[in-house]
Amino acid sequence: MNRCFCILAFLFLSPLLCFSQNRINVWMLSKQFVALDCGIDFNSGFADTFSVWKELEFFATNASICDSIGELLFYTNGIYIANKENDSLKNCNGFNPGYATDYYADDGLGVSQGAIILPKPESNSSYAVFHISGEELDNGSQLQPLHLRYSEVDMNDDNGLGGVIVGKKGVSILNDTLVWGRLTACKHANGRDWWIITHRWNSDLYYKFLLTPDTIIGPMTQHIGSAIIKDDIVGQACFSPDGSKFGYINRNYNFDYMEFNRCTGEFYNHVNIVLPDSNLSQGISFSPNSRFIYCNTYTQLFQFDTWSPDLAASMILIDTIPFVQPGIDDWFAVEMLAPDNKIYISTYNGVKAMHVINYPDLPGTDCAFERKGLTLPTYNLYAIPNHPNYDLGPLPGSECDTLYLSNIAGSENSFSFRISPNPSSTNINIVYNTKETCFFNLFDINGKTVASVTLYHYFKNRLLDVSGLPGGIYFAHISCNGEKIWSEKVIVQH
């Protein structure tokens, strides 16, 4: 296809392809040991760079979040948290305890995607920060993450500047030998809750958590993909913008591609590709339309087409940076899709620029990759903000899309339903009024039926014993004449 035609087509179609990402409109950046730092503001629709004086430095871990209109709320380097005024967030000291915090105290946690910030479901002011902490192994010869931790930030604290909630700071939710970084997240199919993904070190095991308004469910586990080997401290994980695909790249030139079920949290259709480059693998990202995957080593940038019947065969080399000095300053590091629908790639050693994929929805070199395409006012080293797609909505037609089903049936049928107590540890009482016999089914988060009861029309209530079910979130469906007419979330809490 003619390149000019492709770009024109992209420009006309771009309003359909883009997604509003006000939550990621301000990127804070920096290079160690440089007093004046920089950032990027996308609120104008374009990448506007700026300089800023701040004390918090980034090495590799970088996570931030804005409010719904694009104003910066807070950001973290995995060691400290700063508010929008670039001062320490109230009660943030020691939020990520461990040896690594002391080791990286001056620079920020030295691992890509070491933290991620998520709006707490059904809250206008609370934010969940998931972060890893590291300890010494093998008599001090190795640093390794041993905890996935959770901290909660209340933006109503400190006159609107925010603060870490006492009692919800650095809470360990997983204790195991974990991979360095590569924390990522994706919206559940209900469009409200969040899946959080991490990985066990030296294993093919993924850990998954579900963040709901009331609790954190997990860990759930799945063996799939490549084993992450010892000393694998670089790499990146990423979901596609539509949440249906997942990519994971690790240092030994390994690229894992999988599809993702947003309802159950399961990965499937795994494909492994060994990149044709002996240099360490670094970054990965998806195009705005979720079709193309971009992944890089230190010196090479590749594009893959997920619409191709053979993903490996679809590989196109986009650019190569010479593996010689002074090329080290240009080396590719990590990638991130921005609100302007461009993909930005940080540099490995830090320069006053970032690489840019200008039209990532276009195939091959039509993507218009530009080496050092964005000039920065000062240096940035490696770090780039770790962002999920905050705007991903419910998956239409999904069995887990229960939040958007009407719980009020047509008045001509005179249906009414209510369950209590909720949460429950013993029995739930189903109170109903119907003119016909209906059926109550309880499903776990994987869509498996765990309990059923018939709602005879001549009764007004039925009891369901849930004492034998594991604690967690379940979904109740009521159907009459084969039609689902009511749904509700049920919490079993022991």
Describe, in plain words, how this protein is organized in 3D.
The protein folds into 2 domains: 3-380, Methylamine Dehydrogenase, Chain H, CATH 2.130.10.10; 405-492, Immunoglobulin-like (Sandwich). The chain is 4% helix and 44% strand. The protein has 2 helices and 34 strands. The strands form 9 sheets. Strands 7, 8, 9, 10 and 11 form a 5-stranded antiparallel sheet that branches. Strands 12-13-14-15 form a 4-stranded antiparallel sheet, with no helix packed on it. A 4-stranded antiparallel sheet has the order 16-17-18-19, with no helix packed on it. A hairpin with a 3-residue loop joins strand 17 (245-250) and strand 18 (254-260). The model is unreliable at 1-20 and 404-413 (pLDDT under 50).
Short description:
By secondary structure, the chain is mainly beta.
Write the layout of secondary structure elements.
Elements: H1 3-17, E1 26-29, E2 36-41, E3 48-53, E4 63-66, E5 72-76, E6 81-83, H2 99-103, E7 115-119, E8 126-137, E9 142-154, E10 163-164, E11 171-175, E12 184-187, E13 194-199, E14 205-211, E15 216-223, E16 235-239, E17 245-250, E18 254-260, E19 267-274, E20 281-286, E21 292-297, E22 300-305, E23 316-320, E24 332-337, E25 343-347, E26 351-357, E27 369-380, E28 416-420, E29 427-433, E30 438-443, E31 449-455, E32 461-465, E33 472-480, E34 483-492
Antiparallel strand pairs: 1-2, 2-3, 4-5, 5-6, 7-8, 8-9, 9-10, 9-11, 12-13, 13-14, 14-15, 16-17, 17-18, 18-19, 20-21, 21-22, 22-23, 24-25, 25-26, 26-27, 28-29, 29-32, 30-31, 30-33, 33-34
